[in-house]
Amino acid sequence: MTLIRRTFVTTACALALAGPSLAQAQAIKIAGLYELSGAGATAGTNFKNGVEMAVKEINAAGGILGRKLEHSIADTQTNPGVAKGLATKAIDDNAFAVFGPVFSGSIMVSMAETRKAEVPNFTGGEAASITKQGNPYIFRTSFTQDTAMPKVARYIANGLKAKNVVVMYVNNDFGKGGRDAITKALTDVGVKVVADISTDSGQVDFSAPVLRAKAANADALFVYTNEEESARALRELRKQGYNKPIVGETTLTGQKVIELAGDAANGAVAHVGLTIDAPNPLMLKFKAKFYQDYKYFSDHNGIKGYTGVYVLKAAIEKVGKLDRKAVAAALHGLQISAAKQPGVIMDVSFDANGDLDRESFIVEVKGGKQEVKEILPPLSKK
Amino acid sequence: MTDFFQLVFSGMATGSIYALAALGFTLLWQASGTINFAQGEFVMLPAFVMIAFATFGAPMPLAFALTCVVAVAILGWAFKRGIADPLLRFGLMPIVVATIGLSIAARNGIRAGYSAEAHPFPSLFADKLFTVAGVNLTLADIGTLVFALALVLGTQAFLARTVTGRAMQAVAQNTESATVLGINVPRMIFYTFAINAVLACAAALLVTPTYLAKFDMGESLGTKAFFAAIIGGFNNSRGALLGGIIVGVSENLAAAYISAAYKDAVALVIFMAVILFKPQGLLGKKVERKV
Q: A150 vs chain B: nearest CA distance in angstroms?
């Protein structure tokens, strides 16, 4: 009798405790912290739209493990302090995973919160240092500068046969990280950096930096700034009649940059981890669907957000239950093939730091469009 | 040396746009004692209105003309009747606060409607490049400079040479005597607001191709124009032109020869120096406080 009563009481208690969490677990909460205003608006908005589209698709197909996704959106204003506050709020709201921020400066600050709370955090940030802090809950949706820049440097050395290069970068975490990575990668392949030009985030007039780039008289110019500034830099470069190759990494040939810079973008070459013009049927499908939903063509950040959600889906499905710790652990070393999980678009693998590896491209802007010049294999396959 | 001239010239083109906005500052101040801290947003709003007209298929000149009409109605008449007139009788402070509020509202309104992303804006001038003695000049730079100078000088001539202009000046100098002389004071003040609105539209047309149409594009423009107006002399229209060009050129030179990081500080440094040593501005006249 006592035993039965005790069992009954225990079960009742367990049910009472489990009650609210069962109710909460109805939906899988995804908290999005995006740069919807400020200098990162273009990047953040694209990333957000990508995540949103993937969430809609997954929900329409029945969710993950039978549960729907619930996507909340918050604006970091491209301000690391605001991003950190929003990350804390996301954790208080019991988010299963956090997406964003996209800017390296913001994720560097906000990921301390998600790490403490052991919440997987997917970022669009590309600064190399993000995954060097030993944080087991941070995952990239794109290449790090450390994997991308050696590919760029190889192209400058072998493709362009340049002996010396001017590096123009934006003076923020993203720009400085890229400049350090490219400088090292260029030195490794024997190319000399003859001028190192810093520009401001939000800078309008590029006549002075372009003048300095011209004066350096190098074989090529490497430009590493955010979208609007890239467009202004390209316009000023064309205006002052710069006639050497202009090379960049991802941003320089982004959709928004092409739209803003117009004809001035033609001829710019960049290494991109992701491009909607990749010769890949899944990418073409993504491109068409994104355009249908948002009436413009996605840039790489849209693809990053979109594929990021599918990476999370693959990891949760592999674990088979909604356990943040187990999902984060499963992501390290995970290989996802696009054949089985079409939402990731290209085969992708994660390493122990949360960095990812996949194919990438060298593209050139021709007639206002990105054209793929070369497909580069994943680093691990070399 | 060619580098130097290149920088000076492109600085002058930027500076002439600051001058247009600064001229608006000085005009409003002279005519009605209004300091409009939403001046930058007065340039941003027409840019978006022009984009709106252009998306409905209006060619650029028509879009500009229509925008001027809308701007005179809203940024001129409605601004005067709705904000300046009711608040001015309580002194300068309420209007300063109100225009700051207006600028925040305008910025966030545009952000809500047009998103926070930058939008491309067609250039008024063709993409042509001239090289004069090693200095690269674009048609856009030359056009901007000439157009802006023509507007500033045109406004000057209007104020000095026409009956209406002189009446406006009379109002600015002494409202009471102007009333006694039979000048329709409220109408003259409205003209000033209308001119300010048209100047803002012209500045928008010239500046947006480089600044890109973005909800916060007016922020730095408004501040620079304010500095320019103070540097040149708040009660002198020619001062606005001088101030604008000084700010534009010195910014460019500082970015190249000191560091890009100090670019924005330069205007502030000149501003402080002028306030310390010649508070009435370079071309301004000392005005005794009216009792």
A: 28
* Residue pairs between chains A and B whose CB atoms are closer than 8 Å: 79
Most confident of A108-112, A206-210, B141-145: A108-112
What pLDDT does residue A123 have?
94
Which residue range forms the structural domain that includes residue B143? 2-277
Inter-chain touch B7–A240, beta carbons under 8 Å: no
Domains with residue ranges and CATH for chain A: 27-143+279-350 (3.40.50.2300), 146-272+361-381 (3.40.50.2300)
Backbone angles phi, psi at A12, to 5 degrees: -60, -45
Does residue B234 lie in a domain region? yes
pLDDT at A5 (0 to 100): 59
Render pLDDT for B9-62 as a digit per residue (tens, 0 to 9): 888 888 888 898 898 888 888 877 788 889 899 999 999 999 999 888 888 889
> What number is the ipTM of this complex?
0.73
Looking at A262-337, list the stretches that DSSP marks H as alpha helix, in order from N- to C-terminal side: 281-294, 300-319, 324-331
Write the CA distances from B124 to B64, B86, B127, B147, B209, integer angstroms: 11, 38, 10, 11, 8
Asked whether residue B166 is domain-assigned, the answer is: yes
Contact between B256 and A235 using a beta-carbon 8 Å cutoff: no
Measure B67 CA to nearest chain A CA, in Å.
23
Percentage above 70 pLDDT, chain A: 93
Is residue B288, in this structure, part of any structural domain at all? no
H or E segment and range at residue A198: strand A192-199
Asked whether the beta carbons of residue B6 and residue A260 sit closer than 8 angstroms, the reply is no
Write down the pLDDT at residue A4: 58
Query: Looking at chain B, which residue has its C-alpha nearest residue A264?
Result: B127
B118/A171 CB distance under 8 A: no
> What would the pLDDT profile of A288-324 be if each residue is shown by its tens digit?
999 999 999 898 899 999 999 999 999 999 999 999 9
The CATH number for B239's domain is 1.10.3470
Contacts of B252 in chain A (CB under 8 A): 205, 207-208
Residues B8, B3: Cα–Cα separation, whole Å: 9
Task: For residue B114, tell me if it sits in a domain.
Answer: yes
At A3 the pLDDT is 55
Question: Among partner residues B111, B127, B252, which is closest to A207 by beta-carbon distance?
Answer: B252
Copy the structure tokens of residue A6: 């005790």
CA distance to partner chain B, nearest, from residue A196 (Å): 12
Q: Nearest CB to A199: which of B10, B210, B260?
A: B260
Task: Inspect the interface and report whether the beta carbons of B211 and A204 lie closer than 8 Å.
Answer: yes
Q: What is the DSSP string of B17-72?
A: HHHHHHHHHHHHHHHH----TTHHHHHHHHHHHHHHHHHTT--HHHHHHHHHHHHI
> Burial, A198: exposed, middle or buried (Cβ in 10 Å; 0-12, 13-18, 19+)?
middle
Q: Is the pLDDT of residue B214 over 90?
A: no
Minimum CA–CA partner of B2 in chain A: A211
Q: Does B263 touch chain A (CB under 8 A)?
A: yes
B220–A204: do the CB atoms touch at under 8 Å? yes
Burial class of residue A89, CB neighbours in 10 A (0-12, 13-18, 19+):
middle
**CA nearest neighbour of A225 among A172, A298, A277:** A172
Domain count, chain B: 1
Binary contact (A203, B138; C-beta < 8 A)? no
Chain A residues in contact with B120 by the CB 8 A cut-off are 259-260, 262
